[in-house]
């Protein structure tokens, strides 16, 4: 009977392994045009429910429901390593039908030394949306705007605790650092704690932490209820929206810095021009569709389409800017 | 709009025919998925999300809530029958549920689980309905120092989770702590004990450890002992009927744990797992016969089962009234809300009373459905144990592998599962208890994070940990729960000695 058990376990393992790594090449026409010949798989390099997952699923839904692609579009979650598990999956399967969604962590995680793959190992296909950071405080906090907060932090950085979800050296931390540096705060002395499971909002509501560095959408309900106040957002100019429209930007408060939480799509490293052109076109169609405009409104995202070339340049620039910030913090590996 | 009016609107949603139908669909889907070893509420909710596209949001969410608590309700089945917990909230149910099933009382064990779950679920819904708006204050009342104190209290359970040697329990707990440190340290962003392997960056998933140490270790044990016919009356389901004495046993834990579990569920981050462990140990502490715990005690099964279901309703407080997801499962639930264009938060009750109260009102119906559906099904479900043992063992192995593979579709996790299976078997062979490992693994991560958050915020002042009444009282309870049994044991021993002496004379 032991054999039976071993055998069935083995068969299952083999079966599952086979499912995980199937890869085929696909037909490319002679004129360089490319059509997918099987289902497109969008990899969300994170668990269900997060920003990457939501973007992947909503784009996948529009692609399918608006009949933009002939093939079906599936979303697969490859969670782990702040994205690196999903990235190495796309890299190793090296199949033009597998694309993934990403955002600034694609810059941070390699700089942190947590992934050997960086944006240069992939083909940027198109950027879709822009989201911005918001810095929120409890409604009874003493600061009315970013300048008052940063004045206090310049005087005594240890008097202010900043909370975010991600680890130091990743998004919630770095978006705050980017703005604080411009305001003249000693960024090495910023006190930052990371809290999972909704802990960030809890901590500013009960006074365990002072400032919550997060996305705009996460603050809206609490702002409407008058429990928290947004001191500033990191957009170039104010963003349209019922509540969001009242959030002041850091720029209008005289701090000349922005931080964009961009989200876009990437394919494996060696893609042909035809393949890139195919995705550029389809993603542009999604971006221009009314269905996707509705999705953007729902989540409070900004439209920010960039084609492959523009996106590559933007990413190189991002890496330079953020890389120098992280070097100053000693987080660069 | 008054709360009464909103409540009426909610009741209308819950008692409309769509409301009732979709609660039914939700709880059936939830229990079925929850019963599978390895699949818990997260997978259940994720599987059901696409079905809600285009549905009326209030009805859809009533269904999703049903999937959630249905999965917790059904989750105990695999813990009890197969020692293969599918979610962390039902690990504690296997401590006494599995021995009971082994003893040939599987039917009774499942009935106790179903009834305690029902009571825990229903009492907590009443609490939810009465206090949900007021409790949102409680939900944010815990900062890092208070969480640290709560985890500390949970840890005192280690001593009571060991049958024999406390030293062995402490050793396995230490290994559990060590396992919890694997991955990216969220307070500094550095990687710990990953050996350059990207699969370890997020740490080890709870399910890998639970299924390895419990299910696979049990399988190894059964295979190697297959010729030993003394292994009890396998396949015997026993009677479903609970005697009056049984009910009397259950009454205490059910009452206490409905309240305690609910409160712990309200705290983001604590949730069903911690509620079930604290429920288990608190009942063991106050029980007249604590020695029965771990050997198929009715109280020991009723306590965690009541607590985890009560905590599940409690988790709706921060989710609905603050928009704060307190766990991975409620985060996916929050995703389900957002997909339907509903933003939970402080204004949900005023903006969408139909959704807010609809979900709460539907939970009454859902819990009744769960009880009515589950009780008659128990004899059929328990028949799983009648499957020939070689077949059953292979099935458990296959489900464990599928459950683990479904977490992140990574074969790496399968190897890890096998490693933990071997470790679990060796631990059993040398009688090291597995429960402290799991407990330390669950609590350790949160405990470390809250300690370091507290110390960062206080600029390293350790007094910040004991600067408020809540944490101080939690420490006092911890110390009491540690010292009182010691004194009681000594007294008992003295008593016995005196008796022996008087017998001898």
How do you describe this structure in short?
By secondary structure, chain A is α/β, with parallel strands linked by helices. Helix content of chain A is 42%, strand content 19%. In chain B, helix 3 (41-48) runs parallel beside helix 14.
Structure description:
The complex is a heterodimer of chains A (333) and B (505). By secondary structure, chain A is of the alpha/beta class. Chain A folds into two domains: 30-130 and 261-329, Bordetella uptake gene, domain 1 (D-Maltodextrin-Binding Protein, domain 2); 132-260, 3-Layer(aba) Sandwich (D-Maltodextrin-Binding Protein, domain 2). Chain A has eleven helices and ten strands. In chain A, strands 1, 2, 3, 4, 5, 6, 7, 8, 9 and 10 form a ten-stranded mixed beta sheet that branches. In chain A, helix 4 (105-112) packs across helix 11. Chain A is globular, with a radius of gyration of 22 Å. Residues 10-27 of chain A have low confidence and may be disordered. By secondary structure, chain B is mostly helical. In chain B, strands 1-2 form a two-stranded antiparallel sheet. The longest helix of chain B is centred in the N-terminal third of the chain and has 49 residues, at 91-139. The radius of gyration of chain B is 22 Å and the shape is globular. In chain B, 59% of the residues are buried. Chains A and B meet through helix 1, helix 3, strand 6, helix 7 and helix 8 of A and helix 14, helix 17 and helix 19 of B. Chain B: It comes from Halobacillus dabanensis. Chain B: Keywords: Membrane, Transmembrane, Transmembrane helix. Chain B: The chain crosses the membrane at residues 20-53, 59-82, 109-132, 144-162, 169-186, 206-224, 259-281, 322-343, 355-381, 387-407, 414-442, 462-487. Chain B: It holds the Pfam family TctA.
Helix and strand layout, with pairings?
The complex is a heterodimer of chains A (333) and B (505).
Chain A: H1 2-20, E1 40-44, H2 51-65, E2 73-77, H3 84-93, E3 98-102, H4 105-112, E4 123-138, H5 146-155, E5 161-164, H6 171-183, E6 191-194, H7 199-205, E7 211-215, H8 216-224, E8 228-233, E9 260-267, H9 273-288, H10 290-299, E10 302-307, H11 308-329
Parallel strand pairs in A: 1-2, 1-3, 5-6, 5-7
Antiparallel strand pairs in A: 3-9, 4-7, 4-8, 4-9, 4-10
Chain B: H1 3-15, H2 17-35, H3 41-48, H4 57-82, H5 91-139, H6 144-155, H7 157-160, H8 166-180, E1 183-184, E2 191-192, H9 206-224, H10 244-266, H11 271-286, H12 298-314, H13 316-322, H14 328-339, H15 348-351, H16 353-382, H17 389-408, H18 411-429, H19 435-457, H20 469-504
Antiparallel strand pairs in B: 1-2
Helix pairs in contact in B: 1-2, 1-16, 2-3, 2-4, 2-16, 3-4, 3-14, 4-5, 4-12, 4-14, 4-16, 5-10, 5-12, 5-13, 5-16, 6-19, 6-20, 8-19, 9-17, 9-18, 10-11, 10-12, 11-12, 17-18
């Amino acid at each position: 009977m032991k054999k039976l058990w071993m055998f069935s376990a083995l068969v299952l393992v083999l079966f599952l392994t086979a499912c995980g790594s199937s890869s085929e090449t696909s037909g490319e026409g002679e004129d360089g045009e490319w059509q997918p010949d099987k289902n497109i798989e969008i990899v969300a390099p994170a668990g269900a429910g997060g920003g990457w997952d939501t973007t992947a699923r909503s784009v996948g839904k529009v692609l399918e429901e608006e009949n933009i692609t002939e093939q079906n579009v599936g979303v697969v979650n490859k969670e782990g390593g702040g994205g690196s598990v999903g990235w190495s999956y796309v890299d190793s399967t090296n199949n033009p039908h597998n694309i993934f969604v990403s955002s600034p962590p694609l810059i941070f995680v390699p700089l942190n030394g947590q992934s050997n793959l960086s944006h240069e190992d992939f083909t940027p296909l198109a950027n879709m949306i822009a989201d911005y950071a918001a810095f929120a405080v409890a409604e009874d906090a003493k600061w009315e705007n970013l300048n008052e907060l940063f004045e206090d932090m310049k005087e005594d950085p240890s008097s202010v605790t900043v909370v975010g979800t991600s680890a130091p050296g990743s998004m919630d931390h770095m978006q705050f650092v980017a703005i604080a540096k411009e305001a003249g705060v000693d960024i090495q002395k910023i006190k930052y704690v990371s809290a999972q499971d909704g802990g960030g909002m809890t901590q500013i509501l009960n006074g365990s932490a002072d400032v919550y560095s997060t996305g705009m959408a996460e603050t809206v309900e609490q702002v409407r209820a008058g429990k928290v106040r947004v001191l500033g957002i990191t957009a170039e100019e104010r963003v349209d929206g019922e509540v969001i429209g009242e959030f002041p930007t850091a720029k209008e408060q005289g701090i000349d810095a922005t931080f964009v939480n961009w989200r876009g799509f990437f394919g494996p490293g060696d893609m042909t021009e035809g393949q890139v052109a195919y995705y550029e076109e389809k993603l542009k169609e999604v971006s221009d569709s009314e269905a996707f405009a509705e999705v953007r409104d729902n989540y409070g995202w900004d439209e920010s389409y960039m084609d492959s070339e523009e996106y590559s340049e933007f990413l190189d620039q991002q890496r330079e800017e953020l890389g120098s910030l992280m070097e100053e913090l000693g987080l660069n590996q | 709009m008054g709360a009464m009016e909103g409540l009426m609107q909610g009741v209308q949603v819950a008692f409309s025919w769509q409301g009732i139908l979709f609660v039914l669909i939700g709880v059936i889907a939830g229990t079925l998925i929850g019963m599978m070893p390895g699949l818990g509420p997260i997978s259940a909710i994720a599987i059901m999300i696409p079905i809600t596209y285009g549905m009326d949001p209030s009805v859809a969410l009533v269904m999703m809530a049903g999937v959630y608590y249905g999965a917790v309700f059904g989750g105990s089945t695999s813990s009890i029958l197969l020692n293969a917990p599918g979610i962390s909230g039902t690990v504690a149910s296997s401590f006494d549920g599995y021995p009971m099933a082994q003893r040939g009382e599987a039917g009774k064990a499942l009935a106790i689980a179903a009834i305690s779950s029902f009571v825990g679920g229903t009492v907590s819904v009443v609490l939810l309905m009465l206090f949900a708006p007021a409790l949102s204050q409680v939900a944010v009342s815990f900062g890092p120092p208070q969480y640290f104190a709560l985890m500390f209290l949970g840890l005192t359970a280690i001593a009571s989770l060991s049958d024999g040697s406390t030293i062995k329990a402490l050793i396995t707990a230490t290994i559990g702590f060590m396992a919890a440190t694997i991955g990216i340290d969220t307070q500094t962003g550095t990687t710990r004990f990953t050996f350059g392997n990207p699969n370890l960056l997020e740490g080890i998933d709870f399910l890998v450890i639970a299924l390895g140490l419990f299910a696979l270790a049990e399988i190894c044990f059964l295979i190697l002992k297959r010729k030993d016919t003394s292994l009890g009356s396998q396949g015997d389901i026993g009677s479903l009927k609970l005697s009056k004495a049984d009910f009397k046993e259950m009454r205490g834990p059910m009452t206490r744990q409905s309240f305690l579990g609910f409160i712990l569920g309200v705290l983001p981050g604590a949730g069903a797992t911690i509620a079930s462990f604290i429920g288990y140990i608190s009942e063991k502490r106050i029980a007249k016969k604590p020695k029965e715990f771990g050997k198929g005690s009715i109280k020991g099964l009723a306590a965690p089962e009541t607590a985890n279901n009560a905590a599940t309703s409690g988790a709706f407080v921060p989710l609905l009234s603050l928009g704060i997801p307190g766990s991975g499962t409620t985060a996916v639930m929050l995703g389900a809300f957002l997909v339907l264009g509903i933003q939970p938060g402080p204004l949900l009750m005023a903006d969408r009373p139909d959704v807010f109260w609809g979900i709460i009102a539907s939970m009454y119906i859902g819990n009744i459905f769960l009880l009515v559906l589950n009780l008659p099904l128990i004899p059929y479900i328990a028949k799983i144990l009648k499957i020939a043992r070689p077949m059953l063992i292979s099935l458990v192995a296959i489900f464990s592998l599928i459950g683990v593979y479904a977490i992140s579709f990574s074969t790496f996790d399968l190897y890890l599962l096998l490693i933990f299976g071997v470790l679990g078997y060796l631990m059993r062979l040398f009688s090291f208890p597995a429960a402290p490992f799991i407990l330390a693994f669950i609590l350790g991560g949160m405990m470390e994070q809250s300690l370091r958050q507290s110390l960062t915020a206080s600029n390293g002042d350790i007094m910040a940990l004991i600067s408020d009444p809540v944490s101080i009282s939690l420490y006092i309870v911890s110390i009491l729960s540690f010292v009182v049994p010691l004194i009681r044991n000594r007294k008992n021993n003295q008593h016995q000695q005196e008796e022996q002496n008087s017998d001898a004379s």
